[in-house]
Amino acid sequence: MLAAAQRLRRSTDFAAVIRSGRRASRGVLVVHLRVADDHAPDAHGGTTTAREPVSGTGAEQKPAPVRAGFVVSKAVGGAVVRNRVRRRLRHLARERLDRLPPGAMIVIRALPGAAEASYARLGADLDAAIAAALAPRKSGRRSR
RNA sequence: CGAGCCGACCGGGCGGUCGCGUCGACGGGACACGUGCCCGUCGCCGAGGAACGUCCGGACUCCACAGGGCAGGGUGGUUGCUAACGGCAACCCGGGGUGACCCGCGGGACAGUGCCACAGAAAACAGACCGCCGGAGCGGGUGAUUCGGCCCUUCGGGGUGCGAAUCGGCCGGAUCCGGUAAGGGUGAAACGGUGGGGUAAGAGCCCACCAGCAUCCCGGGUGACCGGGAUGGCUUGGCAAACCCCACCCGGAGCAAGGCCAAGAAGGGCCUGUCGCCGUACCGGUGACGGGCCCGCGCAGGCGUUCGAGGGUUGCCCGCCCGAUGCCUGCGGGUAGGCCGCUGGAGCCUGUCGGCAACGGCAGGCCGAGAUGGAUGACCGCCGCCGGCGCCACCGGCAUCGGUGCGCGCCGGGCACAGAAUCCGGCGUACAGGUCGACUCGUCCG
RNA sequence: CGGGACGUGGCGCAGCUUGGUAGCGCACUUGACUGGGGGUCAAGGGGUCGUCGGUUCAAAUCCGGCCGUCCCGA
């Protein structure tokens, strides 16, 4: 399970990751990943420090935490099913945050098939999706 | 023992390893030092009977409010309970069931308006299509009487499927007038029902019994209503979940209510078109130039300040009130953060008293979630329940096979419906399985 | 979380107010015109009116309960 500091808490963060992040889809999951030094870090980080000066100064000394967010739409199922899927994904994401570079933000989105997927299946899909989101970083994205 | 009916309750249990959130304690850290923030450790607590649907009623918050009228909405047996209710309890009435019991939006159709398709004679002050009965004249058939013709004759007469006349004889037919409503393919529904008398034919026309209506009286009940009696005319459908009438109730919006703070003084947000670049088409990202929408702000114009612009009365009118760095119009142009509200309440449990009950009074005890991209979880072990397969045992059967089991083993992401979001009281809906209690009916035994 | 609309042939909609016959356009099938396609003309098929109850003689319509879809509110 993830602590509150390791989760995305703001709709602006979600919008930034989904719009400008890299997307990879594997199985019943879709992963949007945005690495901190990808592009334009000061545009978002500047507003963060202006908004919350205390945590901004703390972030300068410590390494920036990797943060994750989850999107489980109503198409997945009812409230009980959606809660179970999100809790499983949070637990799985906690074990995989160290694979990401510091300061990265990730949004994990569940497709309707995630309601019937087992815990091991969700873990395998998440591993594959994170690997796919990290892989083309050096080749494709740097050329811009 | 079997079947049923009603009510209350539970809604997997124990343990382990990692985690999450609020609160509290302790320790540490940073600083623009404010007992606020961050990190760590420990401890307590951490979804439901429906948290659901959002169908009602309140609390709470904001806006509005002298008052009256019209309009609008809701409820609908009675008496109680309650903060309130469209809820609940008891009773009444009607219907269903052998019964325990269940179901009912259950006021008014002699205040008015309207509707009742098709079929049917007729669908609502009644009327009269067929039929039945009486009468009138017309034509026909038939019968009787008289006369004539014809035939037979024992000349006394007799017969006749012939002709004419008469008939207030009979039969059926069409027309007209009158009586009647017993009967009439229909229809959801047909103007009380059965029997007798009566009549030209009939009819509550009269009588007996029954059903129902109205008025009055007596008795019981707080009341809805119930029981009994008398009189009356002899009976005059249904639909108000059609308009409507009557009685009672209702200001509007909703915690995304509302309040405070930070940032912000002119730019910002969203949608979209063209072009360039990136990218594997689609989708998309990014930059430039345009277009459109959205303000607590700015600009311009107009109106007005004891002769009042305009606004409020959240549907309208009368009336009333407010009203001056104010109001209206046009153009340029908006809200993404944090805190409070935020959880101790018409609260829960136990006992006792009042009440048939719903419920209420008193005494003692208890604290049982407060998230905000949204905590209450993930993975295991054992037990319980369920399903499937195999083995074993027993029963039925010639056999294939079928049934039973507090029996054994294996398999199973099996174990319901479903997750707080301001909080309560209800209702409605979904739900595997289980526990307890009251009662009814049937069979057997005593 | 809180408000508010709507479910009718394959699709988009009328009909509901004032209850008795479900209709229109596109689409579909068949035939004719054409050498064929397209197009035009003619004929035809196809609807549990979202679902379950209730009122009524009778419900797409009136009244409730569910189910589903969509919209709005910082």
Describe the structure.
The protein is of the alpha+beta class and 144 residues long. The protein has five helices and four strands, in the order αββααβαβα. It has helices at residues 11-20, 41-51, 53-61, 79-94, 119-134, and strands at residues 22-26, 29-34, 67-72, 105-110. The protein has a four-stranded mixed beta sheet with strand order 1-2-4-3, with helices on both faces. The protein is globular, with a radius of gyration of 15 Å. The chain binds two RNA strands through residues 1-5, 7-15, 19-20, 23, 39, 50-55, 57-58, 61, 69-71, 78-80, 82-84, 86-88, 90-92, 94, 118-120, 140-141, 143-144.
Structure, briefly:
This protein is an alpha+beta fold and 144 residues long.
List keywords for this structure.
144 residues, alpha+beta, 4-stranded mixed beta sheet, 5 helices, 16% strand, globular, disordered C terminus, RNA-binding
